[in-house]
Structures are given as C-alpha cells and as structure tokens.
Amino acid sequence: MRIAIIDAWRERWRLSPVFQPERLASRADYAAPQRSKMLEQRRTYVSNLTPADQQPFSVPGYCQPCQRQVALQVDFAYAYPVDGRLQPNWRERLLCPHCRLNSRIRATLHLFERFVGARRRDLLYLTEQNTSLYRWMADRYPNLTGSEYLGSEFQPGQVDARGWRHEDLTRLSFADASLSAILSFDVLEHVPDYPAAARECLRCLKPGGVFVFSVPFIVEAQETLVRARLGSDGQIEHLHPPEYHGDPVSDAGCLCYYHFGWELLDQLRDLGFVDVTALDYWSAAHGYLGGNTLLFTARKPAVSMISFRTVAQT
Ligand SMILES: [Zn+2]
Fold it and tell me: Going from the N-terminus, what domains does the chain have, and what CATH number goes with each?
C-alpha cells in the first residue's frame, strides 16, 4: 500500500508515467464492446513500431524498477508471425539496458508492488530461483524463497549442491497457511495436473494471501487449449505439435501442456479462491506491449471457509 501511495505521488508530479491497469474478471470483460477500438489501436501501435528488416531496434519507455526513462531494446528472438508478418515477442523482449529485465518481468514487479502490497519481511514464495527476477526480488524481500523443479528424484524442499531448492507445485514442502504470497510466472502450463498445483497454493497461503501468476493465455478463448496430456500409463499424448519452453536449469526445455483460456479463472473460483482477476497492464509509456499483457491475481479468503463451517456446526 505504501508503494502505491509513492507511485501515485510520483505520477502526480510527473516523475513517472501514469499506470492504470484494467481489472478484468472474465472473457466478457476483456472483449467488451467499449474495449474493441482500444485493442485495435494497440495492434496498430506495435505493427507501426516493427521494422520490416527484422533488425534490432529500441523503443522509448519508463523502466519502473530503475525509475528512469530508457531506450528499451527489442530484437526478433522468439518472434512469431501475426497476420503473416513476423512480430517481436514483446512480452519477452523490450529489455531495459540498465537492469536487463524484459517487459513481462518489469511489469510483474510493477504490478506486484502496486497491487499486492507485500511488506519487506513477509514470507513470499517464487517458483523460480535461477533467474534475474529471483535475484531482483531476493535483494528487496529477505524472506523470499525461490525454487526450481529439479526432477522427481528430489524431495520437496531439498537443496542441491548448487544451492537450488527443489519444489513440485503439486506437493509443496511449505506448512499450511504459512505464506503471504506465492508468485508463479509461466509455470502452470508445464504442470499436467494444474488444479492440484492451485490447490497446493491455496493450502500454503495464509488467509488473505495472494497467488500471483502468469501463463500462456489465448485472450479470445473461453476454453483452455490442451496441447498434451498424460495417459493413465504415464505416457505423454500430444494433441498438438509439442511446444517446449526455456528451462532455467536444463537445456532440454519444458513441455507446454496448456494455452489457457478464461475458464481458468472460474476453475480457481471453484477451488476456493476469491477476487480472481486478470490485470491488463498494457502501457506504451512503460513499454508493456503485445497481445498478452495479463497478470492474474487470486486471493485466499481472509476467513477460512473450513473453520467457518466448523464453527457453524458447533
Ligand atoms: Zn531498468
């Protein structure tokens, strides 16, 4: 909350650009008629920025972690075609030349400090450790725990010779109701049983604690696209061409099982999360561009429904 007040003050005195992400609860919110012109303008804006020669270029923007105006760097690594033309992967590029953080991570830090309002000493868990995001957060939040998925031969909570902690999102080593926030960025799509992972997060969060996450998301789709699934024999069945994402601890890459749709938000509500929200953080001023500028937040109820039921029965 203190950070939000400082942000408001900085924006008021034009020390940083105004940042007003939109809160969306559903596909209907995303595709509301009053947003269609704005979404079209975003597509035109990034299309006009993209050079035809596919050479690296820069875009002016305000880096919130560095609190200064910079020339954000864009190249065509991880580029993909949009309407037959190669577009930069805006989410993973737009690197600040000082902190080297990309658009997705700069926005994540910005939103976390603005909307979650974690205190410095809060117990936080980030589902990554060998990354620039972990290092940036660990400097500011001394009680942050990071982890990587090191393999089924490791026990949850076990630390290897490199100092990396192993956690499996479907069976975390943390105690019930012990964490103020769990942050997980582009991980759930690699967990075949992602509802089990969400249930584990709910178990480990304190009442009122927040699950903050991002995933590959088809903004137009209600239903999740299942790309691969595990058979009862443990074999992987590919329903679409296999897609592998970068893995911070291995060169092999991680299989992507899902491109999520808006039904994910309803599934989290059914599991017991409240205030399940997509924050649409697109901002030209901050260099948060591209087609998927959504960060999701979901809160554990402040009063445990389980204890409420117990009290009601007695
Ligand atoms: Zn920076």
Answer: 2-14+21-302 (3.40.50.150)
